[in-house]
Amino acid sequence: MLNRRQFGLMSLAAAGALAAPMVVRATRAAAQAGSARNVILMISDGAGFHTWHAASYYRHGKLGMEVFDAFPVKTLMTTYPLNVERAPTNDMTPKVGYDAAAAWSTAPGEGQLGADITKLPYKNHFAGYEYVKRNYVDSAAAGTALSSGIKTFNNSINWTNDGKPVRDMGKAAKATGRAVGVVSSVQVSHATPAVFYAQNVSRNNYAEIGAQLLEEAVPDVIMGAGHPMFNRDGRYTTPAGDKAFQYVGGADAYVKLATGQSPYKLIDTKAGFEALAAGTLDLEGKQVYGLAPVANTLQYQRGTRGNDWTPEAPMGNLIETVPSLETMTKGALAVLGTKPNGFFLMVEGGAVDWAAHGNHTGRIIEEQIDFNRSVEAVVAWIEANGGFENTLLIVTTDHGNGMMYGPESDTFAFQPVVNRGQGNLPEVQWHYDTHTNELVPVWAKGPGAEALVAASTGEDLHTAMVGWGSVNRYHDNTDIARLMMSAMSAA
Ligand SMILES: [Zn+2]
Description:
The protein has helices at about 5-15, 20-30, 50-60, 100-105, 125-135, 140-150, 170-175, 190-195, 205-215, 250-260, 270-280, 325-335, 350-355, 360-385, 450-455, 480-490, and strands at about 40-45, 75-80, 180-185, 220-225, 265, 285-290, 345-350, 390-395, 400, 405, 430, 435, 440-445, 460, 475. The chain is α/β, with parallel strands linked by helices. The chain has a single domain (about 5-490), classed as Alkaline Phosphatase, subunit A, CATH 3.40.720. Strand 5, helix 11 and strand 6 form a beta-alpha-beta unit. The longest helix has 24 residues, at about 360-385. Bound molecules: zinc ion. Zinc ion (ZN) binds next to helix 6.
């Protein structure tokens, strides 16, 4: 394994490969960024424009009520990768991009596209629909852009397209003396959490990623799902072979973790997570490994059989023994808030993306609401601990997914979802079962947040079509990493 200095050098080498205009923008962003004691990045994975609105309609009956709606900085972001290959190609030339005119074209579309169109044929009703269905990023390349600031191939966990590891945001934060926290509603070694502590040529090497986590122990707090001893309904189960242990780094790694032979104290009961959040748990001087007692997701997969999805995945009847993302977030803050030199924290609503893949309107709203409550917990913590003068908070997603639009959006291009009031599912129609190359929203508050506006490369006025008319300027996902790095190095 490479040491920190080698990672740093490789990160610099990779940065040098970026196109000149991006370097100029980075310099400008850095000059305007303030210094922050703490930096918190919150990612609702796969939350396109209407995921946010649908959750607000269901939760509040109207828009504008979420805590981040009042943030001073609201922008849009491009998310495309360097290329859409699944392994390094050694060609650093960008192969894909974003063209606003093409993305919002209302010209008639042709054919159909879907990750599995034998199940659901998704017609390309308009040319814009077809455009955003192509050349999309996966969570690994998207997360790598947010964490290390480079564009790369899909599947990459902080791995360049010419086959080199780059330093992630977790290690960068550690190098400044800060503590590090990584929290997710999916497996601890899934792509988005992994990009904040690991380097690997493929996101699918879960056991290697999980082993790196335990070996290097960079996060002071790691939390998520993927418990080998529990099924997707949170019931205790006999692990089915080595694969059941892959998300925690293999069977040997799990034994070390569970028997106290690692730098981490294992917390795997709801009561344990709640005691951590209340600050009453004795950590015995150890780091925290919070493994929710459930297989893959906190709640999303309950009552289902593998990928045998039905169109209806009912809301409610949550697994009672599993902590919410909100409780996990509070637990992470309770630990990180005691650290002398501040911290970097990433919180992911990972199952939002899974619900988008499944086109499950009710459950994506459940997952997004748990994420929104987690944002509220973070804001409450910030306000009680030095305010936004000390902490930079960024709320966003890594890419769109599922193209949730209004009920007549096969006829009326980009029709927004229709509000049916508080407690009622909005009227929607899904147009895809995987990721998109759409712009995505970003909210930010705290030292240097305005640098995202300064980094923007243009305005996209088409967003009024989807009810996002007040947010127009867009920058790139790599600008988020640059802002967070400069906010931490300047402190
Ligand atoms: Zn994602």
